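Quick start: what a row looks like.
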Amino acid sequence: PVRLLGMEPTLDSLVVVNRMWCTQRYSPTDLYVRGLPLSNRRELSGIVRPNRGKVDIKGDIPNPGLLLVSDWAAMLRTSGVSITGVPTFRLTAGDTQRSVLFTHRSPTLASIVRQTNLHSNNMVAEHLFRYLGCVNGGDGTIDSSVEFIRHFWRLKAPSLRSSYIYDGSGLSTKDALSARALVEILCHMDTVSACRAAWLASL
């Protein structure tokens, strides 16, 4: 068996199921982190070649919002600010009254997509996916995101109708996309899309 030595950042509530194993029969080392968004369970699977020593593997942060508020609370306490209660995370409706604490100006979408593809950043891919679900007054749920994507591609990539989309990162074991749908998407991006240059720069 392969032993898990540590994790960064530390996520106290995360349940890690280790299904990694070591063998000489296959090569090279090939490891995966699987789990659903907002789930506190992650499964490590795959193989490691013998005598590799320490091996690093990257995975998504299950609940980025909770990690953010937890780290923020810890920094405030370190700075001498008294905080009562335990940091929590919840999804709220768009009309909830909120106070603006900080405004962050986003990089361009082309820059975000490039970094997402270049580093295979599953967390950002999931955020982009959920953002699509907020377009045209959507609620940002998985269902609204999938509905937007299917409507956008219904004439450009008809075969996408038969796909199964359960998240934006592609980590879900339920995700499925046909070869025909993928070819239709790639052909559209290369020959028709106004975003061709930004798309090519992200590959």
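That is the whole record. The radius of gyration is 20 Å. The chain has six helices and three strands.
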